[in-house]
Amino acid sequence: MEYRVIVPPLGESVVEGTIVKWLKNEGDTVEVDDALVEIMTDKINIEIPSAYAGIMRKHLAKIDAVVEIGQELAIMDVEGEVIATKTFSTSSEPGKEKIPQEQKAPVPAEEFTEAAAHHRCEGIHANEEAIDDGIKAIKSSPVVRRLAREHFIDLRKVHGTGKGGRISKNDVIKYIDARHTVDLVTPDFQFPDLELEEIIPVTGIRKVISEHMVKSAFTIPHVTTFDECDMTGVIAWRKKYVDKIEKEHGVRITFMPFIAKAIIFAAKDFPWINSTFEDDNLHVKKYFNIGMAVARENSLIVPVIKHCEQKSLLQIAKDMRDMADKANTDILKIEEITGGTISITNAGGMGALASTPIIAKPQVAILGVHKIVERAVVRDGEIVIRPILNFGLSFDHRVVDGGYAVQFLRRMIELLEDPDSWVLGVV
Amino acid sequence: MKKITYIEAITQALDEEMDRDEKVFLIGEDIGIYGGVFKATKGLLDKYGAERVIDSPISEVYIAGGSVGAAMVGLRPVAEIQFADFITPSMDQIIQQMAKLRYRTGGQWTCPMTMRVCCGADIAGGLYHSQINEQWFFSQPGLIVVMPATPYDAKGLLKSAIRGDDPVIYFEHKRLYRWIKDEIPEDDFTVPIGKAAMRKEGSDVTLVSYGLMYHRSMEAAVGLEKEGISAEVIDMRTILPWDREMIFESVKKTSKVVLVQESSKTGGVMAEISASITEEVFDYLDAPVARVCGLDVPAVPFAPPMEHYFLPNAEKIAKAVKNIIEY
Question: Which of A144, A150, A169, A172 to mutate to test the interface with B (most CBs of B within 10 A)?
Fold first, then answer.
């Protein structure tokens, strides 16, 4: 049989890779799990393993060619049937991890795929042909025929209790109610080696994230302080200028550059917030490299905007957009994701009202930004509606005291609530 | 609240409407001095005088035609046809004038009149005092046809009929006159034209009827309940235009329907409703639409056993229900 090797999923948000070298040349003998080819992605180099034993017949891509996920890479001659299952895994560069055995348990091809397709598409429902045949075979009333079509029922399977075994509406309803139970007792099909869970190896970027999280969460005593910010001023400012600025400079200023600026101004009075804690020393930074968490499909990356203290609101907005674009297209360089002095994470875009973010070690603080919600608040003894943003500031309690962090956050919020006092001078 | 009979409800409605609006007047045979053969207009001559309670000659065509003319010049006649059996002489005026006036004048003229028609069997009235012929009027667009089954509806529908701007044939069933009593509010109220009443909710079968047959259907439903069959009972109240929505929704729920009508089966109101059900909610039916109707004979027979043989009753209705329940 012919087995066509395709580019498997290469990890979070990676859509393509470049062929570095062929590890099996044309004519080589291949064993199961042998690495066939090495592919480089923006993140990592991956060796693609073979799911079958056989002979490498032909390479379909040359070295340095850019290949997309799902593209055919090579043709192999293998013994026996080939099935199109997706039991891909990627091994990371240093560890050379093996594909876990349970992931590629051999399965009887047709039986499995047919059963799986049936289950996926139709569950316990009858197919169209069976429904039609059932309706033709059984004399039934309009409502019974309608229910048969709506609920995918083969009427030949329904027990009729009417005159002469006629199927009534109630018989169909009883059948629908009982169908799940009935089908559990005598299933139409059975999965071979039924698994009750799917095992996904934590490798690559996911593993790196995992290790960082553990290190940070269990070495840094985290405390999170919450405070709320009235965003009326910033919203009004944006309303007034944002379209104009976008027209002139091609960048739409979001709330995040304001928050970055407010951090910088507030940290003038509370400099320890912007620091790293390394080797028993607190490195208080005189510059601001602000990490901005960007959520991606199944992972997260934190590009760093360098020297924000030297940049205008507009420039920060531009840099943020560029970094987000780079993150989404996976072209961030290593220096663009390291060297942060403080981080911001915005869970508000997805709707969060509060969170306790985990600090990016060795930094000592991370600011959680949340959804702006209109709330009833009291101003001058009156209840008024104001757009409120909850901030959650997590800080390293080994080096930063509670009072210090709370005051920093309050100062930052005071600045944000009165942007006119500072923003025009820096745009 | 006071318990009153069906005929007292009619008298009250006439009295209150005449008191409310001086344009309302009554015309009919023996309605003045005699107070009506069933006493529906008793006392009204003394109260409102002979100009507003008019004893007509024995001429149904005059009662109908005179009323149409009065309605055209702005009055609100309430005519009485002593027995539905004798309505045929007035048919020309009803069909050609009353029903068509608004239509043929492009809405410039209306015919705001009510024709009370005393109808129905089950009183051993014989061939010419037992007829019920709502189907003749049901098939004539331009008319409104109502048939109340309770004192509350008798009063409320009569008031709506008198106040409306279109001609209403108001069938009152003589078997119900003194049989049914209701507690009805003392304050002014009306019952909307075109709205049926859901008298009892059920899940297995829908019973649709009006007039005396509503009471027979309810009697059947109560009996069936004891046998574990849950019947939904709809009293149509207005026959034209009938409440399609309520009937269709009920049939969609129960998927089975028995239509009950006192008059002869062929060409009756229930034939139309049956056809509409199969047109509109066919996909919800779980059994054929069933009808329980009067027999297709020229008139209601006189001999009491034969009259009962002719008429639908609770037993016949229950049998029809069981037949389609088992279907």
Answer: A169
**Are B178 and B236 members of one domain?**
no
Look at A143-147, A327-331, B233-237, B268-272 and tell me which has the smallest mean pLDDT.
Answer: A327-331
Asked if A166 lies within 8 A of B282 by C-beta distance, the reply is: no
Which class in CATH covers the domain with range A117-185? few secondary structures
Instruction: Show residues of chain A in contact with B287, CB under 8 Å.
Output: 141
Q: How many whole angstroms from its chain centre is CA B308?
A: 21
Q: Is the pLDDT of residue B306 over 70?
A: yes
CB B279 within 8 A of CB B236: no
Residue B147 lies inside a defined structural domain of this protein: yes
Which CATH number is correct for A204-426, 3.30.559.10, 3.40.50.300, 3.30.70.270, 3.90.1300.10? Answer: 3.30.559.10
Task: Give the pLDDT of residue A108.
Answer: 39
Do A143 and B285 count as a contact with CB atoms less than 8 A apart?
yes
Cβ contact A168–B286 (<8 Å): yes
List Cβ neighbours of A231 (8 Å cut-off, separation of 6 or more). A255, A372, A386, A387, A388, A389, A416, A417
> 3-state class of B145 per DSSP?
strand
Whether ipTM tops 0.85, in short, is no
CATH class of the domain defined by A2-98:
mainly beta
Contact B286 A146 (CB under 8 A): no
What is the pTM (predicted TM-score) of this model? 0.54
Is residue B215 part of the annotated active site? The answer reads no
| Domain range list for chain A | 2-98, 117-185, 204-426
- In degrees, rounded to 5, the angle at the alpha carbon of residue A289 between the alpha carbons of residues A286 and A295 is 155
Express each pLDDT in B98-152 by its tens digit. Answer: 999 999 999 999 999 999 999 999 998 999 999 999 999 999 999 999 999 999 9
> Tokens 């405390």 map to which residue?
A223
> Which chain B residue has the Cα nearest residue A171?
B286
B283 at interface of A, judged by CB pairs closer than 8 A:
yes
Query: What's the pLDDT band for A152 if we cut at 50, 70, 90?
Result: confident
Closest by alpha carbon to A388, among A377, A379, A397?
A377
